[in-house]
Amino acid sequence: MRARFLHDCPAPAKLNLFLHVNGRRADGYHLLQTVFQMVDHGDLLHFDLRADGRIRRTTEVPGVPEESDLIVRALVLLQAACEERHGHPPPGIDVAIDKRLPMGGGLGGGSSDAATALMVANALWQAGLTREELMALALPLGADIPFFIFGQTAFAEGVGEALQAVEAPDCWYLVIEPGVAVPTAAIFCSEQLTRDTAPVRITDFSRHTMKHTVFKGFGKNDLQAVAVSLFPPVAQAIDWLSAHGDARMTGSGACVFCAFSSETEADTVLQQVPGVWKAWKAKALMHHPLNTVLQVSAVIE
Asked: pTM (2 decimals)?
């Protein structure tokens, strides 16, 4: 029996615990190393099957037309793959979004939404694609999407698509949204960006983090210097948060974060954040929370 809907599906934010630019390929893509860490704060998506074959985003997202939304583009690809595999098209689907993650924040909100959409539609449509097949389907849309489908803390290389599971501290994070949207292209195209950081090994990261109860001190974010020079609010947020720990930017910005060993410590600093910024705390996630939702849904069906 096919389920007709699935609501309250999490699309968690990610943090880049470090982000190194090791080079640039001939096609212009940058070679990166990073560790992706999911946290328990993000968007919520709601899915309802349609009688026709249309894919609709039913929530307005300012600045993002429905046809160019990663969610819609990802589902169009999955719909075609499902038809090719089973010989007939799956039903259409409506997607509503409770949007909590800012655009241009470096938190992977759009990519996480698309990954959640693919995983849920794969279940609702009974498409039968494996995790690896979903990751391969999603990669052309963006290198962050496969990470969310991978579904656990990961050491990433290449353009971000080569993933290995890795342990990271089970800690709390405080995240500040500086109130600006940072366009990724502006950072990667900047002449100020250094592209020659020496590669590290996954064992280097693991050895370092085993010594600490919180994430601190490993590597850096090579994109941060460019972002703070172009967007002063990012620099101001990092300067303020640095008084409380190892503050750094995630992704290409604009959000900045700092790790704490307990929720109490995170709360103490959160209460001091200047009112000009939006800020929140979040727990590190070892695995994607949608896995539990889909398992429960399968039992109910």
From this structure: 0.96
